[in-house]
């Protein structure tokens, strides 16, 4: 009898056998780890091009590698494809000594690949989300095959953090493809090659990606034969697959954790998400031009009630883009819940003439039941003061196509409910708020043009004295809090569930999925 569970297992197993990942009938079963490793609960189909990816690096680094990477505590940047690195005293020269390794097709990895990747990632025509962040790199020198030297035109305190997410790409495989053709090129989902412990094997649209062990990986042959990244339409699907044993790992939402907390078959992994959830005010839409309107939104939302009742206390209110004490100065406006004050501010701003009860699209890519409930609560609270928002939930590719469009329909995302990481390096939110990062250069999708805010970010990024940087980021926090380019809401905890059958399995709730030293070649089951 074929049950729904056995049918799902057949659906996954058959293609793996066809690609050589499985074993023939009667032979010992292949050692495979399956999970929802990509973006959020259940993953995000289509997250293949690392230059356009804004998350999912936990998965991408199974077969691709950056020059440098965070350690598993997210505290220190260490070498990956670079065996070591050094920074000059003036912070204008970064020297990387490179590993002696090969691409998955057998070609040697050299410094020419580093130069090719950096130049490609700096080219906005390639669709790279790193173009503006790498703008300070004036040149990439390659004195020999094992050395790459980055020369900067100005210090950039966030450069190493950015480089942890720039996956090095093979020049010999991509150089012939015009940069403008790369963003959606079939290569990413059909035949990509990297230097990591696993090799890309197969993608079945909307279902899974399969990787096979790279027997020649410089860190040693992986302990398992294959790793499969499963995709699910909902959090509930991922949770059901965990319970049934179809997968051994997935991200989950906070309200799913209770299902696994006391179950000896599973390990609950939790930590700070380093992601601030916010309401983005599209600055191209007239309704948000008046600061009093943005302040009214903040006073209308009872953040404490949402955190306590919906998140079960597993979140911390954010009064700017940060919650880490080192970056949050005293004296910030906490925008306490105050319906009367919100109504008064709207009346002063002339809300009835500005917009009145006209519906405002609240766009989001968050589709889990918890997020839907959060947006319903926000919708009701804003309605109480006379702001009529209508949530619109779309998948991530659709969201990105709307907010990064060359000629956007501003009303399609007049307001967004989204998240952007605020750590482990505090420079990261610069990409979402600095005027220099307006698409296509960066991720300032709300088209924020606030000179004081951009100046505060520029000063922090250009600060060469590490001891003075926290104060610089406090200045950023002050401007965010007073000018409200976003309505910052909270930073939640993030959760993953791993089967106890997994051994030497490293996963942490890193922002954007890291990347960090997970050593997947050591994972076993």
Name of the level-1 CATH class of the largest domain? Alpha Beta
Radius of gyration: 23 Å
User: What is the count of helical runs?
Assistant: 16
Structural class: alpha+beta
Count every beta strand, where a strand is a DSSP E run of 2 or more residues: 17
Structural domain count: 3
What is the 3D shape?
Answer: globular
Per-chain topology:
Elements: H1 4-18, E1 32-36, H2 57-60, E2 68-70, E3 77-79, E4 82-87, E5 93-98, H3 111-122, E6 137-144, E7 147-152, H4 159-163, H5 171-174, H6 187-190, E8 198-204, E9 208-213, E10 226-230, H7 235-244, E11 249-252, E12 266-281, H8 291-300, H9 303-309, E13 315-317, H10 339-349, H11 351-354, E14 360-364, H12 369-384, E15 389-393, H13 396-403, E16 415-421, H14 430-433, H15 451-461, H16 469-483, E17 486-499
Parallel strand pairs: 1-10, 1-11, 14-15, 14-16
Antiparallel strand pairs: 2-3, 4-5, 5-7, 6-7, 8-9, 9-10, 11-17, 12-16, 12-17, 13-17
Helix pairs in contact: 8-10, 15-16
């Amino acid at each position: 009898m074929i049950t729904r569970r056995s049918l799902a297992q057949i659906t996954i197993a058959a293609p793996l056998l066809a690609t050589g990942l499985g074993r023939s009938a009667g032979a010992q079963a292949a050692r495979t780890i399956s999970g929802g490793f990509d973006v959020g609960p259940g993953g995000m189909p289509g997250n293949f091009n690392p230059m356009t990816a804004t998350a999912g690096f936990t998965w991408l680094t199974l077969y691709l590698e950056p020059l440098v990477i965070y350690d598993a505590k997210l505290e220190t940047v260490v070498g990956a494809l670079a065996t070591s690195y050094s920074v000059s005293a003036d912070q204008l020269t970064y020297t990387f000594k490179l590993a002696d390794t090969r691409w998955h097709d057998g070609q040697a990895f050299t410094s020419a690949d580093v130069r090719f990747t950096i130049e490609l990632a700096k080219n906005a025509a390639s669709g790279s989300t790193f173009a503006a962040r790498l703008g300070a790199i004036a040149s990439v020198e390659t004195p020999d095959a094992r050395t790459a030297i980055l020369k900067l035109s100005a210090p950039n305190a966030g450069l190493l953090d950015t480089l942890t997410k720039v996956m090095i790409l093979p020049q010999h495989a991509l150089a012939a493809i015009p940069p403008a053709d790369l963003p959606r090129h079939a290569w990413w989902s059909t035949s990509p090659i990297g230097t990591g412990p696993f090799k890309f094997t197969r993608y079945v649209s909307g279902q899974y990606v399969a990787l096979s062990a790279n027997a020649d990986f410089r860190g040693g042959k992986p302990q398992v034969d294959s790793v499969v990244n499963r995709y699910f339409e909902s959090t509930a699907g991922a949770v059901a697959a965990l319970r049934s044993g179809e997968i051994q790992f997935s991200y989950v939402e906070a309200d799913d954790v209770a299902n696994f907390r006391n179950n000896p078959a599973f390990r609950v992994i939790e930590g700070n998400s380093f992601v601030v959830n916010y309401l983005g005010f599209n600055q191209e839409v007239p309704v948000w031009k008046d600061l009093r309107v943005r302040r009214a939104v903040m006073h209308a939302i009872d953040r404490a009630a949402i955190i306590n009742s919906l998140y079960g206390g597993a979140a911390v209110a954010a009064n700017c883009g940060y919650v880490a004490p080192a970056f949050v100065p005293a004296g910030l406006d906490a925008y306490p819940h105050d319906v009367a004050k919100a109504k008064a501010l709207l009346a002063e701003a002339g809300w009835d003439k500005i917009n009145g009860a006209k519906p405002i699209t609240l766009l989001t890519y968050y589709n889990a039941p918890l997020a839907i409930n959060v947006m319903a609560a926000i919708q009701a609270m804003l309605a109480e003061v006379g702001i009529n928002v209508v949530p619109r939930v779309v998948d991530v590719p659709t969201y990105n196509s709307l907010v990064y469009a060359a000629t956007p329909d501003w009303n399609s995302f007049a307001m967004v409910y989204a998240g952007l990481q605020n750590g482990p390096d505090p420079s990261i939110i610069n990409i979402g708020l600095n005027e220099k990062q307006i698409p296509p250069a960066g991720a300032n999708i709300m088209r924020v043009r606030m000179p004081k805010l951009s100046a505060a970010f520029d000063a922090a990024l250009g600060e060469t004295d590490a001891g003075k940087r926290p104060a610089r980021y406090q200045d950023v926090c002050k401007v965010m809090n007073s000018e409200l380019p976003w309505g910052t809401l909270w930073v939640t905890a993030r959760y993953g569930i791993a089967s106890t059958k997994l051994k030497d399995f490293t996963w942490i709730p890193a922002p954007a999925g890291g990347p960090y030293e997970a050593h997947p070649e050591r994972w076993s089951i």
